[in-house]
């Protein structure tokens, strides 16, 4: 099974998204046993609000169909990068789909691209990188946290993506990237991206792109200053994107009819204002939404070779 | 035929086009600038996408500051180099026969004047230096701390308009003109450093003489169309397009069903993400799918392999065996199109070809004339873009779709369980969704783009009522550019208030 190479029937070892509702869905690894808190292997049962079930029951079911639970049902969905981003186990803060989309789009990635990423974090963006560079490109992703790098490596293996990704445990600020192939793109999501700029200059190919993701404007400021000082980056731009998810609902409002009732004149009796119910369908924005995620900065690398 | 008169003044036109037909050119460097390739040209913050022809000019500015820059100097070089435009030497002017657009005699910009002719020379300095330091202030210039003594009374500048024009006519370089303007200004010294920089940024628009050539990419095209002609791409903002590609789960080896009349931008973006593997079935109304943006990508034969086209008429009428009389009629029309296309391919010039590229009715009269009349503010740029971005790159991208292709596409449509569906068109998406959604494999995504939320609400309600979609969302985005400058970092003054709406979800059958 692979996130990218879609299959229609669930097999043992697959990762399935159990979809109960828009706010209630989980990734499930289809295995006979799972590790419990004490590190012992126990039978893999999954608990939902509609009761629990034996995960192996999923084997042989068709992706995209209803799966019956003791007190209800859910859909079993094939994993995609977007569903994974919504449901993955957080080991760090993660980057979400609106930012991921803009990053991949702005970096002009396509099959065959060589991409360097630091740090790996929980692998939310890494999955989308791999999907885009597949089947002829490669992702080199680094994290200075050994356990996280290890967990990411395992996850890529389970998700059938390991042929297109190399996970390294490394502090890129002190050690650089050590990737032999010149990269088409470097992505940095770390506290001090400006300190990595010299390594980026050594790793990118001419015309390659750098993208940094920083929550604070001071980080952006320092990064942009470092890029300008290097004298080898052009077409700098910083952007931010926020997504609003609307719900569609019917609403009713009372409409007041101010026409005078003709009977009023003849009878002399006051008639109250007529009211009419007016029903319409509308977009309801959420009551609260993300107001900030991070600033996304792009730059194009053109090493300064003087003609004269 | 007049349009075909380029510098080589080939009145037959035939030779001109043959020589500029891409692909067959010797020495067509894969990653360099050559005839027949689309390139992005940037001067300061002005941007153009043109079909590169080394014997033609590109025009920036207008009136007395108009520059007709001969492209020859950039031919054969790699992208991302800086070029300096300088007044053409007399021998170049003498040998240059200006490009005359006799089809639009009312266009003032066609008055080619020798003093406007510029030539390109590769800048000796690295690109960063050339771009960032288009003009270095003379050392004698100081700056003030605030604007308390600056009065807007039109008395500070000693140079008059005609003085500057006459300098230009004498062939004085941009740098020297700026030197003169600045040193003859009484107030420039009092402006703050920041105000001086801002002033120079404005002047760069007029006097900028550094050109950079870039390779077209989906992000550049998307930005370009959104800024210059958002109506053409239905207001699809780059951030929205980026999400559309994510939610549709576009990746190599996937088979996608796309309904689009958005200049071919989405089909181009999908093809780009397929990298030659998989399938992109482009459904459209009429025999001419939109491809204005698609051709700008300089796709290779390999890149285009996944592309298939399906006229929705074939979808409606079914396969060849049960075609009705009307269907036959439509076919005749299409066949005519094909013949004209083939016959004239080597004769006609961009202007004529473009008509065939323009989809749907009204292609007889030049649709751009209309447009130019309305958008009088940037008439020049507008029409240039049209002419330049709608050239058929080669035979493989022929405008008309023939019957055989459609039959193949229809068979493919009927036998394939697609990996994703994208709908992005001028038409109301509901009926399209109803027709196309069942072609998806279970547990695959659909994404519909619309500039307005109401049609998407209709789709949402239908999907929910039928119970054929899970994980369904209707989203819109807020997107902003940030100016990052030391001590002057802030969001850009202008932003786009709407980038359209997306409805997406996962198909779960019935």
Automatic annotation (TrEMBL), chain A:
It is found in: Nucleus. It holds the Pfam family GCD14. It catalyses: an adenosine in mRNA + S-adenosyl-L-methionine = an N(1)-methyladenosine in mRNA + S-adenosyl-L-homocysteine + H(+); adenosine(58) in tRNA + S-adenosyl-L-methionine = N(1)-methyladenosine(58) in tRNA + S-adenosyl-L-homocysteine + H(+). It comes from Orchesella dallaii. Belongs to the class I-like SAM-binding methyltransferase superfamily. TRM61 family. Keywords: Methyltransferase, Nucleus, S-adenosyl-L-methionine, Transferase, tRNA processing. Residues 72-300 form the tRNA (adenine(58)-N(1))-methyltransferase catalytic subunit TRM61 C-terminal domain. This is tRNA (adenine(58)-N(1))-methyltransferase catalytic subunit TRMT61A. InterPro entries: SAM-dependent_MTases_sf, TRM61_C, tRNA_MeTrfase_Gcd14. Catalytic subunit of tRNA (adenine-N(1)-)-methyltransferase, which catalyzes the formation of N(1)-methyladenine at position 58 (m1A58) in initiator methionyl-tRNA. Its EC number is 2.1.1.220.
UniProtKB/TrEMBL annotation, chain B:
Residues 1-29, 338-400 are annotated as: Disordered. Residues 1-22 have a biased composition (Polar residues). It holds the Pfam family Gcd10p. It comes from the Eukaryota. Keywords: Nucleus, tRNA processing. It is found in: Nucleus. Its main location: nucleus. PANTHER family: TRANSLATION INITIATION FACTOR EIF3-RELATED, TRNA (ADENINE(58)-N(1))-METHYLTRANSFERASE NON-CATALYTIC SUBUNIT TRM6. Belongs to the TRM6/GCD10 family. This is tRNA (adenine(58)-N(1))-methyltransferase non-catalytic subunit TRM6. The lineage of its organism: Eukaryota, Metazoa, Ecdysozoa, Arthropoda, Hexapoda.
């Amino acid at each position: 099974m692979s996130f990218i190479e879609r299959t229609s029937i669930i097999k043992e070892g697959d990762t399935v998204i159990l979809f109960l509702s828009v706010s209630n869905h989980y990734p499930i690894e289809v295995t006979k046993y799972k590790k419990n808190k004490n590190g012992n292997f126990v039978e893999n049962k999954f608990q939902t609000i509609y009761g629990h079930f034996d995960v192996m029951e999923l084997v042989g079911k068709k992706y995209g169909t209803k799966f019956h639970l003791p007190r209800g049902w859910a859909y079993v969905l094939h994993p995609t990068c977007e569903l994974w981003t919504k449901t993955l186990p957080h080991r760090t803060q993660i980057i979400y789909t609106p930012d991921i989309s803009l990053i991949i789009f702005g970096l002009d990635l396509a099959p065959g691209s060589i991409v360097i990423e630091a740090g790996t974090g929980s692998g939310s963006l890494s999955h989308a990188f791999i999907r885009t560079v597949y089947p002829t490109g490669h992702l080199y992703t680094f994290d200075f946290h050994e356990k996280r790098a290890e967990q990411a490596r395992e996850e890529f293996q389970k998700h059938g993506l390991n042929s297109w990704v190399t996970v390294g445990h490394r502090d890129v600020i002190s050690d650089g990237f050590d990737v032999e192939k010149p990269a088409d793109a470097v992505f940095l999501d770390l506290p001090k991206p400006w300190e990595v700029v010299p390594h980026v200059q050594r790793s990118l190919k001419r015309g390659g792109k750098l993208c940094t993701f920083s929550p604070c404007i001071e980080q952006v400021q320092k990064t942009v200053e470092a890029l300008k000082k290097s004298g080898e980056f052009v077409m700098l731009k910083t952007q931010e994107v926020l997504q609003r998810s609307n719900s569609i609902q019917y609403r009713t409002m009372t409409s007041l009819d101010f026409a005078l009732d003709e009977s009023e004149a003849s009878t002399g009796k006051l008639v109250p204002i007529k009211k009419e119910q007016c029903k319409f369908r509308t977009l309801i924005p959420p009551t609260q939404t993300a107001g900030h995620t991070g600033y996304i900065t792009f730059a194009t690398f053109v090493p300064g070779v003087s003609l004269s | 035929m007049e349009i075909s008169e380029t510098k080589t003044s080939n009145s037959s036109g035939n030779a001109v086009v043959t020589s500029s037909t891409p692909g067959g050119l010797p020495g067509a460097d894969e990653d360099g600038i050559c005839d027949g390739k689309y390139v992005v040209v940037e001067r300061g913050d002005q941007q153009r996408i043109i079909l590169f022809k080394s014997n033609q000019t590109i025009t920036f500015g207008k009136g007395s500051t108009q520059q007709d820059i001969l492209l020859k100097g950039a031919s054969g070089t790699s992208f991302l180099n800086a070029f300096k435009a300088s007044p053409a030497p007399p021998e170049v002017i003498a040998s240059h026969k200006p490009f005359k657009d006799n089809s639009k005699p009312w266009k003032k910009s066609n008055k080619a004047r020798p003093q406007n002719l510029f030539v390109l020379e590769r800048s000796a300095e690295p690109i960063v230096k050339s771009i960032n330091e288009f003009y270095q202030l003379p050392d004698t210039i100081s700056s003030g701390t605030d604007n308390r003594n600056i009065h807007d009374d039109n008395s500070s500048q000693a140079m008059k308009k005609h003085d500057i024009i006459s300098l230009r006519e004498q062939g004085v370089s941009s740098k020297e003109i700026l030197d003169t303007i600045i040193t003859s200004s009484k107030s420039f010294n009092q402006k703050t450093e920041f105000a001086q920089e801002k002033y120079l940024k404005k002047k760069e628009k007029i006097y900028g003489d550094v050109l950079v050539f870039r390779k077209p990419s989906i992000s550049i095209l998307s930005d370009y169309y959104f800024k210059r002609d958002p109506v053409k791409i239905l207001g699809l903002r780059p951030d929205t397009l980026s999400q559309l590609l994510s939610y549709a789960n576009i990746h190599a080896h996937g088979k996608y069903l796309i309904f689009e009349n958005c200049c071919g931008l989405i089909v181009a973006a999908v093809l780009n993400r397929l990298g030659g593997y998989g399938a992109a079935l482009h459904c459209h109304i009429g025999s001419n799918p939109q491809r204005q943006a698609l051709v700008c990508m300089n796709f290779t034969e390999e890149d285009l392999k996944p592309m298939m086209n399906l006229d929705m008429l074939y979808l409606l009428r079914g396969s060849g065996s049960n075609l009705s009389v009307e269907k036959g009629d439509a076919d005749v029309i299409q066949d005519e199109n094909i013949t004209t296309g083939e016959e004239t391919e080597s004769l006609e010039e961009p202007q004529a070809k473009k008509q065939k590229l323009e989809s749907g009715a009204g292609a007889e009269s030049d649709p751009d004339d209309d447009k130019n009349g309305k958008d009088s503010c940037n008439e020049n740029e507008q029409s240039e873009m049209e002419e330049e971005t709608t050239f058929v790159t080669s035979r493989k991208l022929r405008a008309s779709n023939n019957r055989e292709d459609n039959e193949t596409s229809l068979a493919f449509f009927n036998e394939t369980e697609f990996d994703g569906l994208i709908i992005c068109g001028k038409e109301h998406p509901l009926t399209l969704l109803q027709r196309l959604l069942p072609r998806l494999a279970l547990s695959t995504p659909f994404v519909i783009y619309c500039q307005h939320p109401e049609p998407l609400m209709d789709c949402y309600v239908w999907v929910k009522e039928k119970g054929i979609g899970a994980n369904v969302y209707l989203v819109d985005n807020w997107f902003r550019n940030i100016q990052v400058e030391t001590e002057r970092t802030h969001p850009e003054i202008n932003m786009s208030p709407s980038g359209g709406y997306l409805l997406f979800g996962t198909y779960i059958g019935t």
